């Protein structure tokens, strides 16, 4: 019974993130189409400023090794690169809508999933089982079903004038998203959520501010400012800030792969809202797509992945029925860890015994 509750909670947490992305998409749509405010960099800049005000200042008033200056002395260049990666991931995917079709963006954005899987395998030592890959395939099939429904109902597909450029931008953005998500998982598991968000806020606001001054200062002058536009910017910033603040919690509880699978439903939530707000045409394939993705999520979350913190456990995991291996060591052996859909459990009997 408890396992079932954990499974449902895992899926529910991911859907909260999808709803936040739905809010981001809806406010962006109103800003760009109704008020002709095409300011993706400025919108990201507002989010990074909020992260800076909340989390970077929190780090600044801390004492000891968790202080902002102490963190910068040890890892400033790593967080600088991560901040740039995060900024450009957001920018490339938004920019792609100007060149390619909505369906292409939806499908190619799924490229983030194999990127996260590969990076998790090689750098986080995550090991998957057959049921995980089955769940991933089912989720992607659900996404393909949604894209097919878009074509059948003639939903607005976008410009699609330079499709190759747009598709490459989506793939580039998805790759950067994958890198950012895996780094985020490593940081929140081994360091802290506040450190990650504080550093992203610091370097994100700095570099997005530079990009804003270079690329969008003219667009800002064209925005017909009034209370409605101001409210939309506030709504967008609130959803974006909530997404960034809550995502590390969900990633630590589940994994970067599980989170990206959960986010596949975000387009469907936007679509369901669009049925009432923008009078989109409905197709039963949308419901089929939604439930297919949820089935894939349940399959993926139903079984634990395995993480060998010590590389010496790796071969034993691949052959768990094999004999116990005695290995010399100069330090304390870190236990192998099983990550469930909701956190981690230290195994009672590690596979490797140290002589």
Automatic annotation (TrEMBL):
Name the record gives this protein: Solute carrier family 35 member F1
One GO MF term attached to the UniProt entry: transmembrane transporter activity
GO terms under cellular component: membrane
Function according to Swiss-Prot or TrEMBL: Putative solute transporter.
UniProt keywords, alphabetically: Membrane, Transmembrane, Transmembrane helix, Transport
Cell location: Membrane
Organism superkingdom: Eukaryota
Membrane topology field: Multi-pass membrane protein
Family the entry assigns: Belongs to the SLC35F solute transporter family.
Originating species: Chrysolophus pictus (Golden pheasant)
Keyword hit for Transport: yes
InterPro entries, A to Z: EmrE-like (IPR037185), SLC35_F1/F2/F6 (IPR009262), SLC35F_Transporter (IPR052221)
Annotated transmembrane regions: 45-64, 76-94, 106-126, 133-152, 164-182, 194-215, 227-246, 258-280, 286-308
């Amino acid at each position: 019974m408890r396992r079932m509750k954990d499974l449902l909670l895992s899926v529910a947490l991911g859907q909260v993130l999808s709803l936040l992305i739905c809010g981001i998409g809806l406010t962006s749509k109103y800003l760009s189409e109704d008020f002709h405010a095409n300011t993706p960099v400025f919108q990201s800049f507002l989010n990074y400023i909020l992260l800076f005000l909340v989390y970077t200042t929190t780090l600044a008033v801390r004492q000891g090794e968790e202080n902002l200056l102490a963190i910068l002395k040890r890892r400033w260049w790593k967080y600088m690169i991560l901040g740039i990666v995060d900024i450009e991931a957001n920018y490339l995917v938004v920019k792609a809508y100007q060149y390619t079709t909505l369906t292409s963006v939806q499908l190619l954005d799924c490229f983030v999933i194999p990127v996260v899987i590969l990076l998790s395998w090689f750098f986080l030592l995550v090991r998957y089982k057959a049921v995980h890959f089955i769940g991933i395939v089912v989720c992607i099939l659900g996404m393909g079903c949604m894209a097919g429904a878009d074509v059948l109902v003639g939903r607005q597909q976008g410009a699609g004038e330079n499709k190759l450029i747009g598709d490459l931008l989506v793939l580039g953005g998805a790759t950067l998203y994958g890198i950012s998500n895996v780094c985020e998982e490593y940081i929140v598991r081994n360091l802290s959520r506040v450190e990650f968000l504080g550093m992203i806020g610091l370097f994100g606001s700095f570099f997005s501010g530079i990009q804003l001054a270079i690329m969008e200062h003219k667009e800002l002058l064209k925005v017909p400012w009034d209370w409605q536009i101001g409210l939309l910017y506030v709504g967008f910033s609130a959803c974006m800030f909530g997404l960034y603040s809550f995502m590390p919690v969900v990633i630590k509880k589940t994994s970067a792969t599980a989170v990206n699978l959960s986010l596949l439903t975000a387009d469907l939530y936007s679509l369901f809202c669009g049925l009432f707000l923008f009078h989109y045409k409905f197709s039963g394939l949308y419901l089929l797509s939604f439930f297919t993705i949820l089935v894939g999520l349940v399959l993926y979350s139903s079984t634990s992945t395995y993480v060998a913190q010590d590389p010496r456990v790796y071969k034993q995991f691949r052959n768990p029925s094999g004999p116990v291996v005695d290995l010399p060591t100069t330090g304390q052996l870190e236990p192998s860890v099983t990550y469930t859909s909701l956190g981690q459990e230290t195994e009672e009997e590690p596979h490797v015994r140290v002589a």
